[in-house]
Amino acid sequence: MSATPTFVQDVGLFVEGIRRRGTEVASVAPSSTRLARAMARHLDPKRPQVVVELGAGTGAVTTVAERFLHPDSLFIAVENDATFAGVCAERVQRTVVLCDDAARIGDILAEHLVERVDVVLSGLPVPSLPRSVNMPVFEWLQS
After folding, report:
1. How far apart are CA 68 and CA 6, in angstroms?
2. Strands (E), 47-132
3. Of 26, 30, 42, 130, which has the most beta carbons under 10 Å away?
C-alpha cells in the first residue's frame, strides 16, 4: 500500500516542525489511521459528549474521531503549532481547533464555558515537554 499524498505532505510538515521546534514535535509523521481509531474508541455516537484533544497536530486523530461523534457533541482540539493547527482546521468540519498551549487547558475550557469533559485524546510528547506544560495538564486531568 502506498502512502497517501496527504500523509506524505504531513511528513514534510512534521520534519519542518522538528527543524523549527525540536522535541516539542512528538513525531516525524502523523498518527496512523489505526492509532486514530484506537484513540477514538471511547467516543459514543449515541450520546453527546465533550471531547478534548491535546496536541492535535495536522488532524490525523481529529478527522477520524470526528466521524464517531454524536451530532450534539462538542469537540475542542488544541494544537500549539500554528501551521499544524491551520492544516487541522482545514480538514475538519465540526471541531473547534484552537492554536493554543495545552498548559492553558483549564482556562481554554472556561473560556468556552465547558465545565466537564467526557473524553481526552492526547498526542502530546509528554516526556519531552517542559514541566511548565506537563504539570498544568496533569493537574487539570486530576481535577
Report:
1. 21
2. 50-54, 74-79, 95-99, 119-122
3. 30
